[in-house]
Amino acid sequence: MQEKLYAAVDLGGTKIYAVLAENSGRILSSIRYDTLVDEGPEAILGQIAVSVRELLSQAGARTNRLSAVGVCLAGFFDWQRRLLIHSPNIPGLDQIRVEERLSRKLFVPVLAENDANAAAIGEARRGAASGSQDVLYITVSTGIGAGLVLGGQIYRGSRGFAGEVGHMVVKSGGILCGCGRYGCLETVASGTAIARAANEALQNGTATLLRELAREQGGRVNAATVFSAARAGDKLAQEIVSEAVYYLGIALVNLVNMLNPEVVVIGGGVSAAGDELFVPLEKAIRNYAILPAAASVTLKQATLGVEAGVKGMLCLLTEAESIR
Ligand SMILES: [Zn+2]
Fold this sequence. Notes:
alpha/beta
């Protein structure tokens, strides 16, 4: 008998990334589409269904070998009611029963999960924290997301909204966040926040290497440019990086004190900064977290990159009792 197949789909605000894999996790085919972000839920769900059929055809596999499909959702997924409440980056994806609607299109069970939770499972089972039971995964890119794996399982909270680390309030009197509140971690430490601080300083006429780099990039800089200018010794860039790292450090110290994780994995575009980010964060944990928790935690860079979500979802699919 041929092995069962699983499809995992990462539905993001810009791209849909989907893979088809065997029970063992071996990936047979993969596909990437631009999300039809402005065309509403029916078009997006249709796109996911098409991508799954395309994966099967690419792999030369018959439809009846498909056992289940998993979807990683960038948004608030009510885990108890199986309802996607809201997706900040995809307008119109509100109050949607993704599992039920996709299952009707694909004729197999569908499992949905918040994307950061799926990525956390990916890193905890197959990536930087393989073998660890208590893992805090934080992704720092345009926004800041997180997933908690506690005792080897996703910790979702009562309804599925646990792990909103990006909206931990860390700066009193801080600026307005996309969530409608003020001073969230995301407003001071995300890639967007780092770029915004640099671009504001450029407007003020501060002398900096960033001005030259901005000219080369059409007048604006991104977070990666700020990190490379900081590495090259630019004072302004170093100040911006250290402000962002300071607030990330506060969040990490509090999370380490509260959760006593074995591993903290940091992923997302900003984590590519490497030592510039990891060395000061390690120092913050060592200096400010309670001693026994600080001594037993390891900070690691994520290893699965954009595959973290789908790889985690494949683990969840093969582990789900409702699907086996
Ligand atoms: Zn917020």
